[in-house]
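Open question from group meeting: does this chain pack into something compact, or does most of it stay loose? Before anyone orders reagents, we agreed to write out a predicted structure and look at it together. Recording both the input and the output here so the notebook holds the full record.
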Amino acid sequence: MPTKLTDLHFVSLDWITPHAEAVVAEHARVSTKEPKREEYKKLLKYCIKHGHWSVYEQVCASFSIYTSRAISAQIIRHRSFHMQELSQRYSDPTDILSQLADKCWDFDLRAQDVTNRQNSLPYPNEDVKEDMKKEIKKLYDAIDAVYSRMLDLGFAKECARNILPMCSPTRLHMQGTLRDWIFYVGLRARPDTQAEHRVIAKQIGENLADYVPVIHEAIVESASTTTGLEGWLHV
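Structure tokens returned:
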């Protein structure tokens, strides 16, 4: 059975600022006499509708992201976040993430969309796909064997990692403000994002929706009319 995208690319919440919505509301009322008032649904929706985003910087969240080196290279381009990624210089990813390493070579194979380089399409020939999967598995096993032998012979991990393929598993911790996450999901959960990265963004959006339901509702209400929020329509 083919490996699912969610088997190779998934997230878990490390932490989020406690009482996140109440914290945002309190900061939105910084200039009022009673900033800690309990009712805040209308206020949070108003801030999103009218683009008052700075108050959403007062809450932070961190996620553990499990993915491939190919996708982590896309993720770390989001420079407003703070990140720590598993180092192939100090550790063997096939050991640390052995469960993912066993199936990381079985990534999805899609056809290139010749009219849109940001898009891929279902590959039309299953037999050709299966033959290519077998070749990929042989290549991955050969690389893994050479990598393991290099370590056994005492070569430094910082040298041996040069031969590891882009499908190698990795783990990173990604921390940012709620404002950062709102726009990250808004961009990366859109259909024009690579499927593997989209899986990650949608899972992050689903996690956040559980912790900030009022804010999530307001974002979805504004997503169709606010640039940068469109991805929330697909969460």
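Observations to bring back to the group:
The domain at 5-108+166-234 is CATH 3.30.1360.170 (Gyrase A; domain 2).
The CA atoms of residues 73 and 166 lie 10 Å apart.
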